Here is the input.
Amino acid sequence: MRISTEAGYLLKQVQHELRCKMDAVLAVLELTTAQYAVLVEITKSPGLSNAELARRSFVTPQTMNLIVQNLAKRKIIERNHSASHSRIINIEITPSGMALLRKAEGVVWEVEAEYFGCMNKTEVQSFIALLTKLKEE
Here is the structure.
């Protein structure tokens, strides 16, 4: 079955618009969307390496290194050597980082609620299911 290229283009437009809205509200908290994504991933899976965080956050390892350095300077995260491998440095969120993440989640949830407000609950759930299905392909 041939699918119109419009679907992919529309998906990218929606993603870009949502990202711009997230960038704007997170900037008030002095966070970028990429930094927010890193904090979310660290919370989901504590002790992730820089390389794994880069993969999960859709950035290069070099970019992730800069993100981690900036977050560490602000004491939002801390880096510790892995007990299992001396060359791996695990990254964990600090208590002040967790407080910042909670604030960030609140503003991001508000953006998402407004952005997806044109859809009812069933439509949002269906949309999430469809996106999940695409992701698993």
